[in-house]
Amino acid sequence: MELQADANMSQFATQFANVNLHRNASLPLETFRNASTNNAQMGLIALPIVSLLINSAVVGLLLKGHDRRSPFDIYIIALLLTDTLYPLLNYPQKLVVLTRDYQIGHPACTFYLYFIYAFPALIVHMHLLILINRAWAVFFPVSYRLHHTHRLAYASCVMTTVYIHAAILPAIILDGLYYRLPHGCILNVAQQTTWNLLTQIIVYRIPKYTVPLSYPILLWRIMRTRRRLIRAVSVRAPPFLYGA
What we know:
mainly alpha
């Protein structure tokens, strides 16, 4: 009987210790979660500020040399402006959306959805414009020098912006008018499945994968052209240049 009582007391002590250990372990875990949330919120505040400072400095340098600005610089300026506006206007809204104690209104939610869908697509397509510009210059250099002007660069950026808004805005407007979910601030893509599939493939996926996969081809073309120029110069150069 004494052995059984000792065993029961030992089992009770073990269970009590496990319960206390579980309760004490939950406190650091909750503290860690709160600290992670605070760090994420601080990151959402600091990131647009850092992006604004860096991109503004680069854009200022490009705008300063107005007389020496090439048509290619226009694409860089458009990309930097888009990269600056997106975190500057979107991340503060995201910080509000992620805060559970405050619910944004219907117009603010529509504005937030517009930014998180339109601006990433616009940034990707600005990279695609730069890729097309570089491919034109590498594969057809004579045509590039003759026909690529400042007006064409401005028109390309404007047409790309119009194209993105024509693809994104109708779904955002329809969601705000008819399909908005009662809780949260997310796009109700279940009611616009065809639009969601087409935009994911055409607007987002194809440009996203085309840009990184095409640059090795451009690099190969540049190296090939350079080798041909070196060969041509070595054949035509006078012999005394080589110590003969």
